[in-house]
Amino acid sequence: MELKPLQLPDSLNYIGLFLTLECNLNCSYCINDPEQSGRRATLFPIQGKTTRKTLTPDQWRDALLRIPVREDLPITLQGGEPMLYWGGKGLGIVLERVPHSFDLLTNFPVTPDVFVRNLNGQQAKLQRRAPYPSIRVSYHADEMDRVWKGRGFAELVDRCEGLKDHGFRVSPDKSQSDVGIYMVEHPQNRVTAQMRAAFEGRVPFEGKEFLGVHEGKLYGHYLYPFSTDLIARGIHPQTLHCECRTTELLIDPMGFVWGCHFYLYQAWSKGGLQQEFAALEAEEFTFTQSAHRIFAGRRIAPIGHLLDPEFSMDALKRYRACDQYGRCIGCDTKIKNNRFQSYYDHGVAHTSVQIRGIQMPEHLLDRIAEPERARPFLASESILDL
Ligand code: SF4
Ligand code: SF4
After folding, report:
1. Strand intervals (E) in 20-164
2. Predicted local confidence at residue 338, as pLDDT
3. Which phi-psi region, left, alpha or beta, contains residue 306 (left: φ > 0; alpha: ψ -120 to 50)?
4. I need a labelling partner for 320 at 20 to 30 A (CA). Which of 64, 125, 203, 327 fits?
5. Which range is least confidently modeled, 97-101, 290-294, 342-346?
């Protein structure tokens, strides 16, 4: 099936492709579970090769071929654990069928030999020239120590370094390395002397800000007040109404396009959209025509489907009403750079989503830490009291 190419706007900052939400680990802080309550293994059990919970490699080919190839805007494969897609062999099959460069977010669940065998000669597509590694391996202390019997970090460094034998660049300088290790700076995760001894001079290693609430404390810096902790910290009993749109193309394992990470994860934590997918597939993926029927009455619904012949990037432009404000996932509302380093270089805060018209209850207005900064995002009736 040949689909019309998408016109990617300059404002598009990220293309995230969740190949599968299955994962070999079960980290307590995993954000795939919006409640971060350690339930991800139950919510997303590993079911292996299945056409019902993922697109097939051929469907991914059709979907991805409509995304223009841009060296400065890779398609980031993530999950879950993307190496598990299609019984482990899917990554290489998809890469083989499209011309794009990819970044890969992984916990490196297989040995380098198996990984490269599964890649099926497609290594070059994961070797994008960029100031940082295109294969970004996450380190999860508790889970990796459990699986690798107490030598979690050492094993991970060995696996990354092992890629050298398969034509990948591996260097302690991250700008010269195709692979690097990243650790979520969760309060329980520490960089020990033993870890330093293991990675120094071998593989790049960096901390990654922990986003979310742990033991009642909020971690991370967010543009929109109470967006991630309103409910988690009991600040207010209900989520709020607002309007929201995204600057990222977020595609789930079945090709649905989502307006934010919370909506995507929430839909999947309730079992995914298998029935809706089957209905859509029977109608040749004409989401634009049939979504109002298939998703009638659903508050958590996708904004498009990548195999819909009528899907266009305009789907991301429109602000949509949301009544879930306050349960936003940190990666959507945290202050960060866009791909032009907007925050570091120009002081312009970028967030993955843009939110306006937040209907903030009066009793919360004087608890907003930076009211002047928040003012443009609040509904006009809220501002009167600010
Ligand atoms: S490895 Fe990543 S996706 Fe898997 S459970 Fe841990 S945090 Fe979640
Ligand atoms: S306000 Fe939060 S939950 Fe609602 S769409 Fe935006 S990011 Fe998602």
Report:
1. 75-78, 102-106, 135-139
2. 61
3. alpha
4. 64
5. 342-346
Distance CA(192)–CA(323), nearest Å, equals 43
The closest-lying atom of ligand 1 relative to the alpha carbon of residue 21 is 3
DSSP 358: B
Query: What does DSSP assign to residue 54?
Result: S
Contacts of 341 (CB under 8 A, 6+ apart): none
| Residue 202 CA, distance from chain mean position | 27
Residue with tokens 């409640």, as numbered in its chain? 35
For strands 248-251 and 256-258, give the pairing: antiparallel
Q: Is 305 helix (H, G, I), strand (E, B) or coil?
A: strand
What is the DSSP secondary-structure string of 232-284? TTTSSSS-EEEEEEESEEEE-TTSEEESSHHHHHHHHHTT-SHHHHHHHHHTT
Residue 356, phi then psi, degrees to nearest 5: -145, 165
Distance between CA atoms of residues 263 and 265, nearest Å: 6
Q: Which residue has the higher pLDDT, 378 or 189?
A: 378
Indicate whether this model's pTM tops 0.85: yes
Residue 167 alpha carbon to ligand 2 centre in Å: 42
Asked whether 18 and 78 are in contact (CB, 8 A), the reply is yes
3-state secondary structure of 148: coil
Residue (of 378, 100, 349, 71) closest to 242 by Cα position: 378
Q: Does 260 sit in the ligand 2 pocket, CB within 6 Å?
A: yes
Q: What's the confidence (pLDDT) of residue 31? A: 84
CA of 18 to the centre of ligand 1 (A): 12
Q: How far apart are CA 328 and CA 84, in angstroms?
A: 27
Residues in the chain: 386
Closest CA to 244 of 260, 228, 268: 260
Q: In whole angstroms, what is the distance from residue 197 CA to residue 67 CA?
A: 42
% of the chain exceeding 90 in pLDDT: 79
Query: Mind listing the pLDDT tens digit for each residue in 57-111?
Result: 999 999 999 999 998 899 999 999 999 999 999 999 999 999 999 999 999 999 9
Q: Which residues line ligand 1 (CB under 6 A)?
A: 23, 25-27, 30, 32, 40, 79-81, 107, 138, 140
